[in-house]
Every structure is written in structure tokens, then in C-alpha cells.
Write a structure and sequence with these properties.
This is DUF4139 domain-containing protein. The protein contains 2 helices and 28 strands. Among the domains are: 137 residues, no CATH class; 115 residues, no CATH class. The strands form 6 sheets. The chain has a 7-stranded mixed beta sheet with strand order 6-5-11-3-2-14-15, with no helix packed on it. A 6-stranded mixed beta sheet has the order 21-18-17-24-27-26. The chain has a 5-stranded mixed beta sheet with strand order 16-13-12-19-20, with no helix packed on it. The protein is mostly beta strands.
């Protein structure tokens, strides 16, 4: 634990005495905190602001701020008188006219000194009159950190989920803050007891009925062949995708990166654990993707049906490729398969170095069933193919959907 004192050069209970203060006389211990505010918007350092009532004598007051075994950045410490007690209330500090004609605050810091070989500093604070002053001391402290986590519960139909967002506080700063106002940098403030060497998990917000889309993604160049027995197939990955905007039940603030534990409601009124993922930072209006694992119910194979070089001049040429996809959906529900084609890698494998992102267009043999999205850029088109549900008759054969992507990659050499 740290030891810290704020000391006033004054006689105890000498508030009404008008004699000036002399020297660095340590007679008054740190007054009780009236308020503590903690800001956690920076992932590495935390801003702390304390509010205290400090007795002031007329003249120069030497206020000693010292600490040990506490991760305070001494260059960040600030002292600000903000109000003077009048009866049971406080009034703001005023600007007054000095005998010289200049204007100054009636309580003001006139000097700061750093005693050698000490974790301490001394403020010289001038007060025009004896009083009880409300002051704010702020500083940056390390080892008081936060992280975020989530708990997602999908309904049985996987159309909505309940998303809970938590903040985890870890206080190993050497300081015991007691009851403090805490702000994560977004959302509402909350009040919490924060003791030294404590880990505290707090629910920040609960989002109900967030619409969710379950996606199935095939990316040949990322995952390669499924296994030696199926050299033309590759993994199909499942994700939940949710949009951080008001329309989709979110949109209050950016969603910070953190671990997500994912569950689904079961038929008995309980919950089944689906898995864990690490959510990326999701700004407003952006999408969060949560990995669910590999699909066993959607199967896709990819073949190069044709590959032709078209000479232009010299070494310059176009490469015309037809990719064929054969897809089966063994699910009881319709699904949409997202096929990601990495055209830069396709060009290098079959045509030559594109020297940057490829120039391309799709040809006449491209299946009309394909819809295109360009979420990851023009060189990474996403082909969307709608798949019917498997037949209700379990003995009936699953329909195989066959589509082609005819791509002409231009200006290779």
C-alpha cells in the first residue's frame, strides 16, 4: 500500500488566524476525500481526480503532496483551488484586484518545488484570506487498468441475441480509492468501491433483441484443401454478424475489443455454450463478427474449369479464368454462402504478378445467381449464393447448386 500525505503549514484548527505561514511545517494530515473520479478511456494510464477540503491561512501556505509505493506519474500532478466555503455552501473562487492594479485569483498557486530524493512535491499557495478551500488534485496513475468482455446469448432460431458488455477493473496501483465515480470513456458513469489489489467485473450495458445474421464463408486461399480425401473442398466458417447502429439495437457507443462468450438457448429453457471469440474494435455503424466454428452442413468444392491467356502486346496479357463452385446445403433452413476470391493471389497463381491490385471484370459465363459485395475491397470480391434448405424427406437427395465465376484479369506481365 502507498503512503501519501497532504500537509499544510498551519497550526491545527487555525482557520480563523490571519498570521502568515512560515516554512514547510508538516502539521495537518491529508483531509478526507470528498469525491474521487476515475477515467478509464486510456488503456495504459488512468486519470484520477480527487476533491478535498483544505484549510488555508492568510498568506502563503505550503502544501506538501507525497507518495510512496504508488504508480503516480509525478509530472502529471496538478493542484487547482476551485471554491471557498461560505456557511454550509461553497462559492466559486473569484478574481480580485491586487494593490498593483493587476487581477488575480483570491487563492492561487505561486510556486511548485520538488524536494530532492523524495516522492513528493510542495505547492506554495497564496490565499488573500483565511478560509476552507475546496481543491482538486489530479494525476495519471499506472496499474489501474481495464479490459472489456461480452456475453452473447442467441435465441433458438439464431435471429436475435442478447449482448451483455462488461468492464473488468484491475487495481494494482498501490492506491486504495474506496468509493469512486468511474467513467469508461463512453456510456454512463457508475459508482464503485475500488480497493487495492482488487479485480472487479461490472456490467456496463445490456442490449436486448439485437438482430443477428448467421453467415457461412468459404475462402480457398486462406484455408486451402479440406483434407487429402477432399482436395477440391475447403473449410466453411460460421459467424454471427451484428451491426453497431441504432436500427439493430446497438449504436450507443463503439464496442471495444474483448473476449466474447457465445451461448444459444436450448429447447429445455437452458443455454448451450457455442464457443469463444475475440471481438475487434467495432465503431458506430460498423459490423462485429463472432466466430462460431466450422460448418458441417454446408459443403463447397472449387475447381478451375478453364484458364486461358490472351496476349495484348509484348509480355502484356489478360488472363481469362472460369471458376466452378459446387455447393450442398444439408441444413433444414435456407442459407447464403459467402465465397471470398482473392484475385491478386489468383492472378499470381495462374497469370503473373499484377504489381498491385488487379484490374478485372467478370465475363459472360458468370452465373446470374451470384450477387457481389466488396466489403474488403475490389480485389477481394465476395460472391453471395443463396442455397435452398435440404428436402424435408430425409431420404431425398440434397440438391447440388452449381455456379460459375468468369473473371478476366487484365494487364498482367
Amino acid at each position: 500500500m502507498r503512503t501519501r500525505t497532504l500537509l499544510i503549514a498551519a497550526l491545527a484548527a487555525a482557520i480563523g488566524v490571519s498570521a502568515p505561514a512560515f516554512g514547510r511545517i508538516k502539521l495537518a494530515t491529508l483531509p478526507v476525500r470528498e469525491r474521487v473520479e476515475i477515467r478509464l478511456d486510456n488503456p495504459h494510464f488512468t486519470l484520477v481526480e480527487e476533491e478535498r477540503i483544505v484549510p488555508m491561512l492568510k498568506g502563503t501556505n505550503m502544501i506538501d503532496f507525497s507518495w510512496s509505493n504508488t504508480a503516480i506519474d509525478k509530472n502529471s500532478i496538478q493542484f487547482r483551488p476551485i471554491a471557498i466555503r461560505q456557511g454550509k455552501k461553497f462559492r466559486p473562487i473569484k478574481t480580485v484586484d491586487r494593490p498593483s492594479g493587476a487581477k488575480a485569483l483570491e487563492i492561487r498557486v505561486i510556486n511548485v518545488a520538488y524536494p530532492p530524493n523524495e516522492n513528493a512535491l510542495v505547492w506554495e499557495v497564496y490565499s488573500d484570506e483565511p478560509c476552507a478551500a475546496k481543491v482538486r488534485v489530479s494525476y495519471v496513475i499506472a496499474n489501474l487498468t481495464r479490459s472489456f468482455s461480452y456475453r452473447a446469448l442467441a435465441n433458438r432460431d439464431e435471429t436475435f441475441l442478447t449482448l451483455r458488455k462488461y468492464i473488468q477493473l484491475r487495481n494494482y496501483s498501490g492506491e486504495d480509492f474506496g468509493g469512486s465515480g468511474v467513467w469508461a470513456g463512453f456510456g454512463p458513469k457508475f459508482h464503485k468501491q475500488i480497493g487495492h489489489q482488487e479485480d472487479i467485473k461490472i456490467l456496463l450495458h445490456k442490449f436486448d433483441k439485437v438482430p443477428v445474421e448467421k453467415t457461412f464463408t468459404f475462402d480457398w486461399y486462406t484455408h486451402g484443401p479440406l483434407n487429402p480425401d477432399k482436395p477440391l473442398a475447403s473449410r466453411v466458417l460460421m459467424h454471427y454478424r451484428l451491426t453497431n447502429d441504432e436500427k439493430h439495437g446497438l449504436g450507443l457507443f463503439p464496442l471495444q475489443p474483448g473476449k466474447v462468450r457465445i451461448f444459444i438457448a436450448d429447447s429445455r429453457g437452458g443455454e448451450a455454450f457455442l464457443g469463444e471469440d475475440w471481438a475487434a474494435l467495432t465503431p458506430l455503424d460498423d459490423k462485429m463478427k463472432l466466430y462460431l466454428g466450422e460448418s458441417r452442413d454446408v459443403v463447397c468444392t472449387r475447381t478451375i474449369e478453364s484458364n486461358q491467356r490472351i496476349d495484348v502486346r509484348g509480355n502484356l496479357h489478360h488472363q481469362e479464368i472460369v471458376l466452378k463452385y459446387e455447393i450442398e446445403n444439408f441444413k433444414d433452413k435456407p442459407a447464403t454462402l459467402q465465397i471470398v476470391e482473392q484475385l491478386n493471389r489468383l492472378a499470381r497463381e495462374y497469370g503473373g504478378d499484377p504489381h498491385g491490385d488487379v484490374e478485372w471484370e467478370h465475363g459472360a459465363k458468370t452465373s446470374k445467381e451470384i450477387r457481389f459485395e466488396f466489403e474488403h475491397g475490389g480485389a477481394l470480391p465476395m460472391l453471395l449464393i443463396d442455397l435452398p434448405a435440404r428436402p424435408k424427406d430425409k431420404d431425398a437427395k440434397v440438391e447440388k447448386v452449381v455456379v460459375r465465376f468468369h473473371v478476366i484479369i487484365k494487364n498482367l506481365w
